[in-house]
Each structure stands twice: as structure tokens, then as C-alpha cells.
Specification:
This protein has 192 residues and is an all-alpha fold. It has helices at 3-12, 17-38, 42-59, 70-90, 110-128, 132-142, 148-155, 159-177. Residues 92-107 and 181-192 have low confidence and may be disordered.
Amino acid sequence: MHKEDEQKWVQAAPYNPQAFMHLYEHYFPKVLAYVSYRIHTPQDVEDIVAEIFLKVVRDIHQFEWRHEHAFSGWLFQIAYNQVMDFYRRQAVETKMTTPFIGEDITSPSLEEAVLHQETFQQARTLIQQLPPRQQEVITLKFFGHLRNQEIAAILKLNEKTVAAHLCRGLQDLYRAFAPEAPPKNAHEKHVP
């Protein structure tokens, strides 16, 4: 989405349902992917995503366009707050399920679906072992598809701190997820 189009639609959205639909169609898959990763049941995900967009509809007239990423930052701040409110209400640790990432997959084979589920569960388990701040940065980055600047605004951090959390988290995930590389020249026989 071009920033000029987004700004135009944001400004028109309080009184033009079609303008709001453009924003909704663009951001819905990203918000759904983020919430799906953070919440464990599809029904709760649907409820929370609905709450997020109802809040956006209700409050968009108060939104002020300040820069290119202002709207996405504002929207994901609402999503982040709704997820945190859900956890406070539930007061339980969740077990995550496969997210609805909004991919256009046409009937994958059973084998592909099982492999995808196993890989995703392994990745999710590894992400859950990271410190909480790194988990949040990684989920906003890769499930919410946000830029570091937007993540910084949502989490009230500076961009360098976000980049550091992202870098350390990805390094830790890579070390945990990637198989050990064979030693150099391991295939060669040792000759005395």
C-alpha cells in the first residue's frame, strides 16, 4: 500500500466505509497472523481480532496522521493491548496453535500439512524459550510484518534496542533450530 493511499483512506475512513474497507483488507491478514500466534484458540483469536477492528472503527476519528508508519503503529498498539488484556483476563499460560497467517494455500497434502505443523511447533517452542521482550519483538516483526520503527513505538523502545533484541533473538533461534554443521573436512579420511 502506498503511503499516499493509506493517508487518504485513513482520513476518509471515519465517514467513508469504502475507505475503511481498503485499510481493513490490507491490515486484516497481518493483525490476524499476529493475534493467532499470541492466542491459543481460534475462537479467542476471532473474538480478539473483532474487538481490535471494532476499536479501530470506534476511535479512528481521533487518529492523527503524523508520519508514514503512524497508522500501522497505532493499529498494532491496539492489537498488542487487546492481547495483553486477554492474558490478564485469562490469567493462564497458553499453549499456542498454528496461526492463520493469511497464506493462500490451495489444499496442501496431508504430508505437507503435518510437516508444516511440526516445523511451526518446533519454531514456536524455541521462540517461547526466548526472553519475553525478544519474543514480542520477533512476533511483531514476523507475524505482524512490522518495521523496527513501528515495533519501537508499540513497545516504547528505541529502534536500536528493537534491532538488538531482534538480532539476539534470531541468533539464539538459529543456534537452537539449525542442525550442527559437520566439522570442516569431516568426510576426508585422516592419513597418519
